[in-house]
Each structure stands twice: as structure tokens, then as C-alpha cells.
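Cont'd.
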Amino acid sequence: MKILVVDDEQDVRTLFEQRFRREIRSGAFTFSFAYSGEEALDYLHDHSSEVVLILSDINMPGMSGLELLRHIRHQYNSPPPTPPQVMMITAYGDEASRQQALELGANDFLAKPVDFAALKEKLLHLTAHEN
Amino acid sequence: MEVNASILISVGLAAIVVRSMRKFLDLPIRTPHLSRLLGYFWVPGLILYLFSLLIHWKTDRLDEIYTLFLLAMVVGVLVRVQHYRPARTLLLAVVPYALYALIELLSGALSTGFLHEYRSLFSNSQGFATIWLVTFVLIARKQKKQLEAERVVREAEEKERREIAAQNAQLERLVAERTSSLTQQTEELQHALEELKTTQAQLIQAEKMASLGELTAGIAHEIQNPLNFVTNFSDVSAELVQELEEEQQRPDRDHELEAELLADLRQNLQKITHHGQRAASIVRGMLEHSRASTGERQPTDLNVLADEYLRLAYHGLRAKDKTFNATLNTHFDPSLVKINAVAQDLGRVLLNLFTNAFYAVQKRKEASPPDFAPTVSVATRQLPNGSVEVRVRDNGTGIPASVRQKIFQPFFTTKPTGEGTGLGLSLSYDIVTKAHGGTLEVESEEGQGTEFIITLPA
């Protein structure tokens, strides 16, 4: 399962790669990283069919995660083959943000700091469903 | 008998003389006692008359004796009041006549021949004495008038002098009053000035605290991220260590994997240090911002300062308005030299400019189509003359020309009541121009954006 992680913090890559090192090694997950909303859209433009799940930070300079979500839902809603799942991650884990994200079509909403154990559960669950 | 009665005419004359003298010499005032005594001028006349009646002495000498007495009385009075100049003149007038009268009486009494012998001379003398008398009486009168006039003038002067003295006293009193009221006013003004100074200091501190409030959310966010990394990298490192231990227990150890795990561990420890320091530096910055400025100048890298405060301002605003986003552009000149500056104060200036920029782009975004991209840029440049330049640019609402003149004035704000102190730009202007000898300029086009340009000497 291919997962695109969008965050302006570069170290997120290292963190994800270590947190999911077993899954990466086993080939269960493949991760791609984008450091801004714009970069994420570029990546999706080339790899839309591969990406199953997008994990995006909301607060980023330039295009915010919510704008990215709007673009994704606008551009990739009529799928080949299925639209990607989008999970929003934010430091501001209040209900208003959650509501806004869900209205814009987010599949899930996670608050920072990310509980990686829980995230892993969700991802494995998704994988199981996909299969 | 008829002859003796002529003394009564002399007494009447004497009454006129006494009355004139009293009036002319102001006797009732000058010598009241003598004046009263003069009132008995008729007594000797009466005595003489009665005496002559008693002894049946028929003579025209009686009249002359009384006249002589009268003259003596006049001379006596004049001598008595001789300090009065007209009196002396009168004395001079009367003496020859009195002498003449005396000689006439004596010569009449001693020998009649004497009179006959010098008849013409004597008659001339009488005329001379009379003319002398009249002349000097006139002179005395003139003198008296003159003295009167002088006295009037003197009295007028005296009155004037008294009035001036009174006026002086009045003026002195007014001056004293005015002085005391001025002193009081000065004290009040001094007091007010001190209160104002205190208030100013409080306002500056309040503004600082207000900007700290704006920073708080940004700081919280900024600290949260590195702390998350510290926690996550620690957690994951514990997992790595566990995996490494498990690997070591195996009979067929994968040395490559072990080396990879160790390399990851080393990298994670570096990340933990890095993010820990990042959080610490943010806390340090916050403490520095809230502390009263020491005014101490230190070599300051404006690239670092601008970057730090741009992020803080951005996250501060975003924490308040979660829907807000902006593109941040930074163009930092790598050749920028460090300048001697109070970093904390310049940080406040930058924070203020960034906060304003974000406010302006946010305002414009509210009234713009969704594709409007709010952008805030900061650029630094090393100038050929050694100065450094910082430009803070936004594509916000811009500043109308009518307002541009006022933006650096204290308490001027376009923000709604309670949102702005109106001190931000005013204090920034003071910090840049007064404290650092630089310039703070603004270029703006309404509806297009604003650029603030700070120039600071090296």
C-alpha cells in the first residue's frame, strides 16, 4: 500500500521510515514524502493511481493541508480506480478543525503528537480492507 | 477826653492786625497758645484808657504807646515764628517802622526840640519806614504764596509717592501670588510629566506584552513540533535498541542490519539534540522578548532574527485563525554581515512588521476570490556602503495615502478597538531610527500591498 506523507517538517520522513521500518522491510507499506501542498499535488499528478492513502499536515506554509484536500477531492474524485483516502494531521486538534476537514472530505482526522501505535492499527486495518 | 478816645480806633486797628497775622501766619496751627494769648490784645488798650481816665491824663501819647505795644507784640510774635520765612520777611518789614515809632515816642517824651530839629528827616523816615513796611509785606505775601505753591507741589508729589508705594506694594503682592501659583503649576507639571513617563514605560511594556500574547500561540506551536520529534525519536530509538538486542541474541546475527540500526540510533540521537535545542532556543527567544530591554548591543544576524520572528508571527496568527494560511517567501542575502544591535528590540520591530503584514493579507483574503494567495516576503540585502537592508513585503490591503503619514504616530491604529495598541509602528520607528540610527520607510499601494524597508548601519 502506497502512502504519501505531506508535512513541511523534513524529519517526518526519518521518523516514518523508522516507525514503520518493519512494514517497509516486509513491503506492506511504501512511503513517499512531500514537503508542501504544492509538491504533493505535483507528485499526485504523476502517481495518482498508485497512492492509496494521503497523510497530510494541515498547517503548512503556502498551500495548507485543507486546500490540498480540496484540490484532491476536486481533481481525483472520479477515480481510476478508487479515490485515495485522506487523513489530516494537525497540532490544532480542536473540533472546528475536525469538522472542517471532514466536511471537505477527509476520511480521518489525527491530532499531533501522532500516536504511531494507533496510526499503525488504522493503516493495517485499511490494508486488510484493501485486500 | 476826645483825644484819649482815639486809642479805641487803635484797638480796632490792632484787631485787624491780629486777625491778619493769625490768618497770614496760620497762628492757630503754628502756635495755638500764642494765638489765644493774642486774643487779649485789647486788654492793655483798655487798661491804658481806664488809667488815663483815672488820673485825668490828657495826652495823645496814649495812642502812640498802645501802637508801640502793638508793634512790640507783632515783633514778638514774628520772632517766635521766625523759622517761617514769610515771618522773617515780615519782621524785616516791621522793625524799621517799630524803631521809628519807638524813637518818635521817646523823642516826644524826652524833648520836643529834637523833633523839631530833624523834622524833615523824621518825616522822610516815616515815609521810608512805611514804604519799607508795605514793600516787605508784599514780598512776604509773595513768599507765602510761593511757599504755598511749593507745598501744594510737595504734597502732590508726596501723594504720588505714596500712591506709587502703594502700587508697588500691590505689585509685590501680585508678583508673590503669581510666583507661588507658578511654582505650584511647575510642581504640578513636573508631577504630570513624571506620571506620563511612568505611563509611557507601562505602555511600552504593555505593548511588549501584547505582542508576546500574539507570540504565545506561535511559540506554543513552534515548541510543540520539536517536542513531538524529541518524544517520537526517543520512542523509536527505544524500539531500535530492543530490535538490536533481539538481533544480538540470534545465533546468525545480521551484522549489516545491526550496523544500520546503530547508524539510525546515532542519527536519532542527533535529531533529539537538534530538536531539543530548537525548543530551547524558542523558549530563550520568548524570555528575551518579555524581559525589559537591557539595551545591550550585540553582533546580530538579521537573517536568523528575521526567519525566527517570521515563523513566530505566522504561527501566532494561525493559532488565532485556523483557516488562515499564507505563503512565506524568504530571500536572505548570505553575504549579510552581523550588525551591532539590540536583537531583542529589533526582534520586536520585525515581529510588528510581520504581524501587520499577516493582518493585511488576511484582510485582503476575506474580500478576495478563493484563488488569492496571501504572500508575505522578507528579504535582506547587504548594501555597498556597509549598511544592511531588510524588506518586509505583503500583498495585502495596502495603506491608503491619507493614512500613510500617520502610521508612525503613537496611538494611531486602523484596527478595531481592543485589537491594536497603536504603539507598534511608533515604537518600531523609535527603535530603528533613535536607538539604532537607521531608517524605516514604507511603500504602499492601496489594494496591492505594502513594503516596509528597514536600513541599519553596520
